[in-house]
Design brief:
Chain D: Pfam families: ABC_tran (PF00005). Chain D: Keywords: Amino-acid transport, ATP-binding, Nucleotide-binding, Transport. Chain D: InterPro entries: AAA+_ATPase (IPR003593), ABC_transporter-like_ATP-bd (IPR003439), ABC_transporter-like_CS (IPR017871), BCAA_Transport_ATP-bd_LivF (IPR052156), P-loop_NTPase (IPR027417). Chain D: GO terms for molecular function: ATP binding; ATP hydrolysis activity; branched-chain amino acid transmembrane transporter activity. Chain D: Belongs to the ABC transporter superfamily. The structure holds four protein chains of four kinds. In chain A, helix 3 packs antiparallel against helix 10 and helix 7 runs antiparallel to helix 10. Chain A contains 15 helices and four strands. Chain A folds into two domains: 50 residues; 227 residues, no CATH class. Chain B is an alpha/beta fold. Chain B has two domains: 242 residues, Rossmann fold, CATH 3.40.50; 152 residues, Rossmann fold (3-Layer(aba) Sandwich). Helix content of chain B is 43%, strand content 15%. In chain B, strand 3, helix 6 and strand 4 form a beta-alpha-beta unit. By secondary structure, chain C is mostly helical. Chain C has twelve helices and two strands. In chain C, a hairpin with a 2-residue loop joins strand 1 and strand 2. By secondary structure, chain D is of the alpha/beta class. In chain D, the strands form two sheets. Chain D has a six-stranded mixed β-sheet, with helices on both faces. In chain D, strands 2-1-4-5 form a four-stranded antiparallel β-sheet, covered by helices on one side. In chain D, a hairpin with a 2-residue loop joins strand 4 and strand 5. The longest helix of chain D is centred in the C-terminal third of the chain and has 16 residues. Classes of the chains: A mainly alpha, B alpha/beta, C mainly alpha, D alpha/beta. At the B-C interface, helix 4, strand 7, helix 9 and helix 10 of B face helix 2, helix 10 and helix 11 of C.
Chain lengths: 358, 440, 321, 234
């Protein structure tokens, strides 16, 4: 038995253990927690920080978070939403409107935003599923619901129209810089906060995936009619998927609004925000737990590296980034996380052939 | 990522970008190679070439491990690609030009002729890159920052400067609350923000018209429906009634709209004494087009903070019809010789229009250079102190001495009145900056 | 123009309570009962704008209808059309009208290339993959234009002016675009209905498996369709360049409205695209006239959602292309 | 004429055919029977290039065709009447028929063939300008068959041609099949109407779990106890 096979078999033995997900989770989030330190480590005169700054890390984890939230609905139940900016924006706006106009602590505002977004998600879902929208039609409907909000908010002076909100100071709502205020004076706490967010949504996602709810979700994704025929209440479970996903996406929007200081309809409800929120999940592997996280650690750094490497010609980085997107969906339509199993399948096929030949 | 760097590098922290404006000048000459051929007699090319040999070599190969006082690095954080790039590139070029001119004069005097270098970062007009690019520019050694044109991006960018205690002089960013009520200690804005521009409109334009014997009792607003358009609209609503001008109609145009027919129909049926346009270049062109198509023109066609009627290209695109338009916007000061000089140098070097926005960025860079000159140091806090006490008169913008208040706003910021006369944009009011009399 | 000044719309202050929703409709009804001449003018503008929108949707509906691919690069295809016409007229000094067929040819080739390189390999993959692939194409082409032609806005030197018919102003640039839209629509419709290739395209749109069972080379139909769809975008972009300044980013606003129109009219339906375009144009014009700000766009999205829910196959869905 | 050896195929990760071996000779009617999910339709789809086999070989007149696209297979003379018909439902009957003629030869003859089909299926002639989707199931089945014949196949593959049809229509379909076979066409068919099919067929294959479990003459199969029990419900 070759060394590789030994390792592989050991890994499989480990993988079968009940504690395996816990160990993997701890390892993953341990790594995430250590990243700000790791990027500062000097290896042969090179620091990773030269490529990945803390700000880029934060952005990466934000999109890992939103993609994970998107994944609960679209990856698990197969209802491809192209309008998650709606929920993201609701979270951002609820937080800022409450904190700026009513001095409500942003944590409370965030939860209010989550609930509002969940409600909006239920409306979208109830209408779309009642009328049996599928595929492109469903995607376009969700997009329309998001674009609708962009124009509504732009034209509503009650929500400060196109000017949007500037974040208030902690003292304006009776707090001091720190966790309670949801505001910090440097980036590191913001990083750990969003890693914490990611941990929570990943945990929720894992719980769903490993429960009967997840089973129903997958059944709906694979064959909704068949699922319904064996008694899965698909309408209700799709709604659960939308609501949970919308709720968590809104929390991401709330974080965004606190971290970036200012929001406008054309920043949080932007057309391309819809894409940015879900892209890591599609690149990483929709419907998987690891996909959104791995995807984000590919998408965001690639765009960042392209930007810093090809900065001599303005715009060249977007060409590289575009080519990267095309390449990844062509060569890995099921996401990057499928690479190991594809490699394994290939390996086994090769070995299988050998056995047949013998 | 700085544009002055020729070879790319994986470690921007250690590997300082090309130092010395000589290299910058060479790169510029490269960019504007068309002009270098015929307009190369310009002294900038020569002096850049002279010192370029040695400066360029040491700059790109060794870099400087520590901040040394033989160069001052300005970090320019602007949208160099994406939908805002048309203006952003011009603004960044203006900042480079300001550095080049200073170096031609012998550099920063108080630092024994230290050269001014500009390193550029492209924020792509994206909010999430505003802070990131600021950090990159700082880690590349920038002593002071400027940017960013888009207000949300500027907010993110200034936040970084404030936290790190590095001065940030805003080139352009219109939103009032970037500075107001933010408690910033390191951020400054020479430019009049939206509210100031609108109040200047209300103060100046009606009196120009009335002084000329005209009547202006009613107005119709035509604005772009984004934050900048709405900010001006809100302020005009506040200030115009104080000058006895009633707003009888408001109509908005969407960014990227294909025409302004409906909006003009609406304005036409309200038939106000003046239409006040607040748009980017494209929106104003559409307005002019639709007005002509419907054979309508109010007694006074005016604009507040509109890019269209201070943009020579747009004015010539519109043609005849643009003549007579009164517009208040930040403007270049035509009464000083330096303006024409800078303008012609800019045109020679960059084959781009020296618009009011570009001119404002140029002024921001001069403010920075002047502050460094007065500080005699590249320490951020020294520069910051100098900015606080600054009173800079020798600039090319049509406004008084640039002095900052506690919030960092320029107390003498001004949006004077321009008029299109014979297809060229002329400052007509207040008189101290006027190059022509208003024709009412 | 004093004779038109009979109705002064109420000042539409945003944030004025419920009145802001009701007053415009009251005003609209009053104008109708008074037979305000401005209504006729608005109708004309709605028709013109609708024609332009319909034109921008033709290519999208073709690709969407036949291949079931949401082509995000459609907007930037329009932009390539604009630059083609501009290049032809500025550089070669040819009339911009002649530039339009050239733009169509350029876009046909570009469309085929884009299709073969990016869409064909994943035509059977989940739909979101095609969406992201075309998004990548959008980034690539848009930035390439930006690098080659700078981000500065461009304009075709052509002042067409307007004519006045019975008190109604008709801007000629948009009028020509409407004529081109109608002509193109009829030509493509004739091509689809009267030629063998057209029938094969319709068949493939109708039932891809069916097309394969009868032996249609579906791959070939795919790239031809994508090419023709792109060429239609070229015609649309070229026509828009007749009356509008443009930059590398102009396509994005048209893209979203084109999606709305395609769904309103029904996938793959050319008359549907035309009617959808008219509806969106009319709402923008009348909504823009009576409603504050850009509230009209809210109506358009509500209509869009309503159509998706109640009649997702569109007004002309199910009918022949 | 047609030979399958060791054909494995399926959808995504799921293999449905685990090595199918069968052949059809010139002029034969061959029937493929088996329970639901045995892999009959998958076999038919694989032959016509709608699915491509992961392993194994399909040859037609000595030429390997398993890696060819469906239109290339049609060009070689294999045309299928698919199980779910796959008609162009939004197009007229005439359009559907015309689309059936894709090869050069078929195109050359298509006017004559069209007339012939309208003669053969009078119901279609009555509805020739109607949209296919608006017709009854029986009419649609006729149209599918006629559309396939418009392609002038040498080998006609029929996948459940009588499914969901009223008894008198079933008989009509079988009459047509017999008729065209009599004119020399080779036929491979899948049918749930086992008895009638096996009577018509020269040979039959029984398929179970993605493999051929037995093969014999049609009459022999009709007498085989296992087959009778499993598929004839006696």
């Amino acid at each position: 038995m070759s060394a590789i096979e030994t390792v592989r078999d050991r890994y499989r033995t480990f993988d079968d253990q009940r504690y395996a997900p816990l160990v993997k989770g701890v390892a993953l989030f341990g790594l995430l927690a250590a990243l700000p330190t790791i990027i500062e480590i000097d290896v042969a005169g090179m620091e990773l920080a030269a490529l990945l700054s803390l700000k880029v890390l934060i952005l990466t984890v934000i999109y890992a978070y939103t993609a994970q939230a998107w994944n609960i609905m679209s990856g698990y139940t197969g209802q491809f939403s192209f309008g998650h900016a709606a929920f993201f924006g609701i979270g951002a706006y609820a937080t800022q409107a409450l904190v700026v106009d009513a001095a409500v602590n942003p944590w409370i505002g965030m939860l209010v935003g989550g609930v509002l977004a969940g409600g909006y998600g239920l409306i979208i879902g109830a209408l779309s599923f009642r009328f049996k929208l599928q595929g492109h039609y469903f995607a376009l409907a969700t997009l329309a619901f998001a674009e609708l909000l962009r124009f509504v908010v732009t034209n509503m002076s009650e929500l400060r129209g196109a000017n949007g909100y500037f974040k208030a100071f902690p003292r304006d709502y009776g707090a001091e810089y720190g966790l309670v205020a949801f505001q910090f004076q440097n980036d590191l706490p913001y990083y750990y906060l969003i890693v914490g967010f990611l941990l929570v949504v990943t945990l929720v996602s894992w719980l769903i995936k490993n429960s009967w709810v997840g089973l129903y979700f997958f059944a709906i994704r694979e064959d909704e009619r068949a699922a319904a025929s064996v008694g899965v209440p698909s309408f209700r479970y799709k709604l659960i998927g939308v609501a949970v996903s919308a709720f968590f996406t809104a929390l991401g929007g709330a974080y965004w609004s606190m971290y970036f200081n200012t929001i406008r309809p054309d920043t949080v409800f932007a057309l391309f925000k819809n894409v940015e929120l879900l892209l890591p999940a599609v690149v990483g592997g929709p419907g998987t737990l690891l996909g959104p996280i791995v995807g984000s650690f590919i998408v965001t750094p690639v765009s960042e590296i392209a930007r810093t490497t090809f900065s001599d010609i303005n715009g060249l980085d977007r060409i590289i980034y575009g080519a990267f997107l095309v390449a990844i969906v062509i060569y890995s339509p099921r996401g990057v996380v499928s690479w190991p199993s594809q490699a394994r399948a290939l390996w086994e096929r090769v070995r299988g052939d050998e056995e047949v030949n013998e | 990522m700085g544009k002055t760097l020729k070879s790319s590098t994986s470690n921007r922290r250690r590997f300082l970008k090309a130092t010395g404006a000589s290299v910058a000048a060479l790169t510029l000459a490269g960019c504007a190679s068309d002009d270098a051929g015929n307009g190369g007699g310009d002294s900038g090319g020569d002096s850049g070439g002279d010192s370029g040999g040695s400066g360029g070599d040491t700059g790109t190969t060794t870099g400087t491990p520590e901040q040394s006082v033989d160069e001052v690095i300005i970090g320019s954080n602007h949208p160099l690609s994406g939908s805002l790039a048309a203006t952003g590139v011009g603004m960044s070029n203006a900042i480079k030009l300001a550095a080049m001119r200073k170096n031609e004069e012998g550099g920063i005097e108080s630092l024994d002729g230290a050269e001014v270098t500009v390193i550029e970062g492209d924020n792509q007009g994206a909010q999430e890159l505003g802070g990131q690019v600021s950090e990159e520019l700082l880690s590349e050694g920038a002593h002071v920052l400027t940017g960013c044109y888009s207000s949300p991006v500027t907010t993110a960018a200034t936040q970084v400067a404030e936290r790190q205690g590095v001065p940030f002089v805003i080139s352009i960013a219109a939103a009032d609350n970037i500075l107001q009520g933010r408690d910033f200690n390191y951020v400054y804005r020479p430019q009049p923000p939206a509210r100031r521009l609108a109040s200047d409109y209300a103060d100046l334009v009606p009196s120009v018209i009335r002084d000329g014997g005209g009547t202006i009792d009613t107005a119709g607003l035509f604005y772009i429906n984004n934050s900048y358009g709405q900010a001006i609209r809100d302020s005009l609503r506040e200030f115009l009634p104080e000058q006895n001008v009633e707003i009888v109609e408001e109509t908005a145009i969407e960014f990227g709209a294909s025409n302004a027919n409906t909006q003009v129909s609406r304005l036409r049926s309200a038939d106000p004494d003046t239409i006040i346009a607040t748009t980017y270049v494209a929106g104003g062109v559409l307005l002019a087009q639709a007005l002509q198509d419907q054979d309508y023109r109010p007694p006074y066609l005016t604009a507040s903070a509109s890019a269209t009627f201070t943009d020579d290209d747009a004015v010539s695109d519109i043609g005849e019809f643009a003549n007579g338009v009164l517009d208040n916007n930040y403007a270049l000061n035509p009464t000083v010789d330096k303006t024409a000089e800078v303008r012609s140098q800019f045109l020679d070097n960059y084959d781009q229009e020296f618009s009011a926005s570009v001119g404002m960025a140029y002024t921001a860079a001069e403010v920075i250079i002047q502050a460094v000159e007065e500080a005699g140091s590249v320490e951020p806090d020294d520069i910051n102190e100098a900015l606080k006490g600054l009173s800079y008169e020798d600039h090319i913008s049509a406004m008084g001495a640039i002095e900052f208040d506690d919030q960092g706003e320029n107390v003498n910021a001004l949006g004077p009145v321009n008029q299109v006369q014979d297809l060229s944009v002329k400052v007509v009011y207040p008189e101290e900056y006027a190059e022509a009399d208003p024709q009412v | 123009m004093g004779h038109l000044v009979t109705s002064v719309a109420p000042l539409p202050l945003q944030g004025g309570g419920l009145g802001r929703f009701i007053d415009p409709f009251v005003q609209f009804l009053t104008d109708i009962t008074n037979l305000e001449p401005v209504l006729l003018q608005l109708l004309a503008f709605g028709l013109l704008l609708g024609g332009v929108y319909a034109l921008t949707a033709l290519g999208l509906t073709m690709i969407f209808g036949v291949m079931d691919v949401i082509n995000f690069a459609h907007g930037v295809f329009l932009v390539v059309g604009m630059y083609s016409v501009w290049l032809v007229s500025e550089m070669a000094g040819i009339s911009p009208f002649l530039g339009i067929p050239i733009a169509a040819a350029v876009l046909f080739v570009l469309g085929v290339v884009v299709h073969v390189l990016t869409v064909e390999p994943i035509i059977e993959a989940p739909q979101q993959n095609q969406l992201i692939a075309t998004l990548g194409v959008l980034f690539i082409i848009q930035s390439a234009i930006e690098i080659v032609f700078t981000p500065d806005p461009q304009q075709v030197e052509l002042s067409l002016g307007s004519i006045q018919v019975g008190g109604v102003f008709i801007p000629l640039g948009q009028f020509y675009a409407l004529v081109i839209a109608l002509g193109t629509m009829l030509a493509v419709r004739a091509f689809l209905n009267r030629t063998d290739l057209g029938r094969k395209i319709r068949g493939t749109a109708d039932n891809r498996d069916g097309a394969r069972y009868v032996g249609i080379n579906v791959r070939r139909i795919n790239y031809l369709t994508f090419g023709i769809g792109a060429a239609l975008a070229g015609v649309a972009g070229g026509s828009i360049a007749l009356f509008q300044r443009f930059d590398p980013f102009t396509g994005e606003t048209y893209l979203i409205n084109a999606f709305v129109i395609v769904i309103l009219g029904g996938l793959g339906s050319f008359p549907g695209a035309f009617v959808g375009g008219l509806i969106v144009g009319m709402i923008q014009v009348f909504g823009g006239y009576y409603l504050p700000g850009t509230t009209a766009q809210v109506l358009i999205f509500l209509l869009f959602i309503g159509t998706l829910l109640v009649k997702p196959e569109g007004l002309f869905g199910g009918a022949e292309a | 004429m047609l030979e399958l050896s060791g054909v494995r195929a399926g959808y995504d990760d799921i293999e449905v055919l685990h090595g199918v071996d069968m052949h059809v000779d010139e002029g034969e009617i061959v029937a493929l029977i088996g329970s639901n999910g045995a892999g009959k339709t998958t076999t038919m789809r694989t032959i016509c290039g709608i699915l491509s086999p992961s392993r194994g070989e399909i040859t037609y007149r000595g030429e390997a065709i398993h890696s060819k696209a469906s239109h290339e297979i049609v060009e070689r003379g294999i045309v299928q009447v698919p199980e779910n018909r796959d008609l162009f439902t939004n197009m007229t009957v005439i359009d559907n028929l015309l689309l059936g003629a894709q090869t050069e030869e078929a195109k050359a003859d298509r006017r004559e063939n069209l007339d012939e089909m309208l003669e053969l299926f009078p119901r279609l002639a009555e509805r020739k300008n109607q949209r296919a989707g608006t017709m009854s199931g029986g009419e649609q089945q006729m149209l599918t068959l006629a559309r396939a014949l418009m392609g002038e196949p040498d080998l006609l593959i029929l996948d459940e041609p009588s499914i969901g049809l009223a008894p008198h229509l079933v008989q009509e379909v079988f009459d047509v099949i017999e008729d065209i076979h009599a004119q020399g066409m080779t036929v491979l068919m899948v049918e749930q109407n086992v008895q009638q099919t096996l009577k018509l067929a020269d040979r039959g294959y029984v398929m179970e779990n993605g493999r051929i479990s037995m093969t014999a003459d049609g009459d022999e199969l009709l007498e085989d106890e296992g087959v009778v029990e499993a598929y004839l419900g006696v």
